[in-house]
Amino acid sequence: MDTPSPEQEKTILGTLISWFCIIFGASAIAAPAVYAAFGVQSGQFLSIYYLALGIASLILGYFGLKSKPAAFFLIVLLFLPQIIAFTTPQESYNFIGPIQVGWGFGNAQQFYFHINFLAILVCALSAATVFKLTKQADKKH
What we know:
Blueprint: H1 12-37, H2 44-65, H3 69-79, E1 84-87, E2 92-94, E3 102-107, E4 111-116, H4 117-140
Antiparallel strand pairs: 1-2, 1-4, 3-4
Helix pairs in contact: 1-2, 2-3, 3-4
């Protein structure tokens, strides 16, 4: 029984992460229009951010389906800033995309902190996929 070569062996985890990135990218691109349809003003910066996030996610999802380790490394970098968001009276940091599963606490007027568990999961699974794909490539050589 022949074992498949690393190019032929696609990781199920990598395929799932890639399809998630494609769905996430499509929703990020559609988010400004959906917000406008429901009468929510999102602002120019947020609309541009969602469009850039969506395009990058679509491209990385496509290359992830082709089992490119660099795509999964860049997926980690794409979702890393989306892990936390916080608001204080002086500062605000929120780069969480349109799809999130998280938990927040605090008072929005004084201090609010939000953790996005979905971004943590995507980062961890993408990093695991990078390690698996690079290990497969090392075995080939």
